[in-house]
């Protein structure tokens, strides 16, 4: 596709379950970010992948959160043992690299009940 | 201190007026500065970027950067109701990480 694709669009899960969120970036984009946005709040940085470099994981809020990017393309954000405070919209953005425009996916709205 | 700070607003201006949005950042090594617009329930989209000190104009939008003061602003001339949205300031810091402010909610009143 032409844009950044995220799946699922919506996810409702029970507290304590694990969830996987997927991001399919724009083909050829070397940089990929994950952000979290709670209602009425700004974007909270989670993790940054750039090419083959080690990812910047400094924004992950706890060890329940992890992410990987396979083959420099698709990325998966995994949240283990979900908590109610994990409820938010998770946004993925891809860039051609460097200081360029970030293209965002439509987000995954996660609700932990 | 947050890395990127914005006045959360809400900011209300009448149609046709100039809306002024401000942002400060803490990392002196920051090199690139962006303004994104986010409509309610939608994802952010880029409206302006600026790399050098001074002003950059694009249509009704002007971005202003002052690296000495660690300050970046966005002016929207002839504001329209369709400009009503949350405006997010974003900065690429010395660690090459794209960091966003919390956003300023703008309402343009018809």
- Global mean pLDDT of chain A: 93
Helicity level of chain A, as a percent range?
under 10%
State the low-pLDDT regions of chain B, or none.
none
What is the rounded Rg of chain A?
Answer: 13 Å
Helix and strand pattern of chain A = EEEEEEEEEE
Major sheet size, sense and barrel closure of chain B:
6 strands, mixed
List the helices and strands of chain B in order. Answer: EEEEEEEEEEE
The best one-word shape of chain A is: globular
> How much beta of chain A, percentage-wise?
over 45%
Structural class of chain A: mainly beta
Beta-strand segment tally of chain B: 11
Strand content of chain B: over 45%
The outline of chain B comes out as globular
Keywords:
heterodimer; A: 113 residues; mainly beta; 6-stranded mixed sheet; 4-stranded antiparallel sheet; 0% helix; 46% strand; globular; B: 110 residues; 5-stranded antiparallel sheet; 11 strands
Give structural notes.
The complex is a heterodimer of chains A (113) and B (110). Chain A is mainly beta and 113 residues long. Chain A has no helices and ten strands. Chain A has strands spanning 5-7, 10-13, 19-24, 31-37, 44-50, 65-69, 75-79, 88-95, 103-104, 108-112. In chain A, the strands form two sheets. In chain A, strands 2, 4, 5, 8, 9 and 10 form a six-stranded mixed sheet that branches. A four-stranded antiparallel sheet of chain A has the order 1-3-7-6, with no helix packed on it. Chain A is globular. By secondary structure, chain B is an all-beta fold. In chain B, strand 7 (61-66) and strand 8 (71-76) form a beta hairpin. In chain B, the strands form two sheets. In chain B, strands 2, 4, 5, 9, 10 and 11 form a six-stranded mixed sheet that branches. In chain B, strands 1-3-8-7-6 form a five-stranded antiparallel sheet, with no helix packed on it. Chain B is built from no helices and eleven strands. Chain A binds chain B through residues 33, 35, 41-43, 45, 48, 50, 56, 58, 91, 93, 95, 99, 101-102, 104-107, and chain B through 6, 31-32, 34, 36, 43-46, 49, 51, 88, 90, 92, 95-103.
């Amino acid at each position: 596709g032409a844009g950044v694709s995220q799946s699922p669009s919506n996810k409702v899960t029970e507290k304590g379950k694990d969830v996987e969120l997927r991001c399919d970036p724009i083909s050829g984009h070397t940089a990929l970010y994950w952000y979290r946005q709670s209602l009425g709040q700004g974007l909270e940085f989670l993790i940054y992948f750039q090419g083959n470099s080690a990812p910047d994981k400094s924004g992950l809020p706890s060890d329940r959160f992890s992410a990987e990017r396979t083959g420099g393309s698709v990325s998966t954000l995994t949240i283990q043992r979900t908590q109610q405070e994990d409820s938010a919209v998770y946004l993925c953005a891809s860039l051609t690299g460097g200081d360029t425009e970030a293209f965002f996916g439509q987000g995954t709205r996660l609700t932990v009940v | 201190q947050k890395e990127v700070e914005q006045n959360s607003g809400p900011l209300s201006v009448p149609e046709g007026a100039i809306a002024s949005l401000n942002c400060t950042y803490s990392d002196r090594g920051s090199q690139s500065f962006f303004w994104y617009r986010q409509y309610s329930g939608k994802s952010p989209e880029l409206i302006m970027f600026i790399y050098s000190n001074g002003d950059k104009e694009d249509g009704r939008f002007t971005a202003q950067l002052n690296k000495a003061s660690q300050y970046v602003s966005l002016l929207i001339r002839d504001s329209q109701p369709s400009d009503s949205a949350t405006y997010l300031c974003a900065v690429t810091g010395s660690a090459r990480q794209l960091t966003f402010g919390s956003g300023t909610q703008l309402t343009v009143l018809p």
